[in-house]
Write the structure tokens for this entry.
Amino acid sequence: MARLIRNTRQQAAPRAAVRHLIVCQHDGRFDSTVEPAAISDLIQQKDQIVWVDLQHPRPEDLALLSEEFGFHPLAIEDATHFHERPKIDAYDRYYFLVFYALQYDVEQRRVSSQQVSLFIGSNYLVCIHQEPIAAIDETIRRWQRYEHDFGEDVSELLYHLLDTIVDEYFPVLDELIERVEEVEAQIFDHFRPESLQEIFTLKRELLLMRKIVASERDVLNVLIRREAPIYPREMTAYFQDVYDHLIRITDSIDTYRDLLSSALDAFLSIQSNQLNEVVKTLTIASIILMSAALVAGIYGMNFDVMPELRWPWGYPFALGLMAAISLILIAIFKRRGWL
């Protein structure tokens, strides 16, 4: 199987547009002179597979899709207007599929998602995305190195691409799981108020991932049930494998979302208990001070006949009485377990 890789790079603000045109032929010929304008002729030849990868496509790239492939304007619009939900749409001679690549930003400690729009024909695959995606580059390298594992059908290529994208979800999920465990340690081992913000941040990240994975699971379900018959029946087991991976990821996300909810309840409970302890301590202190203030108030009254006012030991007696009452109250509170 021969292959042709053609890269076109042009500087654009704020990033460069990149076009990869890959043509594989089963007769062993290698051709490095194919032009994008010849795509319409290439896809008519069923003995070869065409892969076009467009990163940050320019207007002329979109015109190429319309002229050479004849894609519907609405499909091209969905492919270039990002933040579409994962879906699969059927057209006359091709299918339009939206998937998402996930990546974990270690510096910003957040999950970033990038839409991958796929046009799938009988012998061609067109990818559109804004930023470089490692899964696409990895699939291209594997295709070039182990072309015999990919067969001569575009469905094999689609399976390997989706499988590589989904496999990259697991490291992202592992990073989030590690952060969830850190939050639990912060709450139960040494309570930290900043854990509350981390809990809500993680719940938002897991919710974002849950929305993407759940919709992609529905897309794979359509492929498995062959509602979109774009692959041979024997490929069902392979797409079922990708579907099972999405199920595992969804279950893990739900588990750790529940764990975060429990951690949030524990955080609020600990915070409430701490507040109760503070209020209890202040209440005990106020009772003790009020008892001492009672003695001081009694001897502070301006009556003419108060024997202790003329008594030489009256002042030490008043202080001792205050101390004795305070000690008695402290002993009572300790006996009841309030201190």
In short: The first helix runs from residue 39 to 42.
